[in-house]
Amino acid sequence: MQLLTEQEKKRIQRYCTYPKIAATALVMSFAACLLMLPLQMINDIAFHQKEFQPAGIYTAIALTAIELAIFCYCALAPRFGMQGKQWKELQSRLAVAQTNKDRSAEVAGVLATQAAGRLLKNSDNDLARNLGGAAEVAGAVGAVATAADVLAETASNAEAMANAYGVTIPSVKKQIIALAVLPAIVLLGVYIPQFVQGNNELQARKAAAAEQLAIAQDALEPACERVAADDPYESYHDYGYRIIGYLRDNDLGAQAAYVYLSFDVDGTLTDVDYVSQIDPGASLADNLARAEQDIATLCAPLNGLDVSVAAPSLLTPCSLSDEFKQAFLAGSLYEEISIKTEGESIRSYYAFDTEPKEEFDEYTHPEIRLMLSAKKS
Question: Which segments cross the bilayer (predicted)?
Answer without folding.
Answer: 21-43, 55-76, 176-196
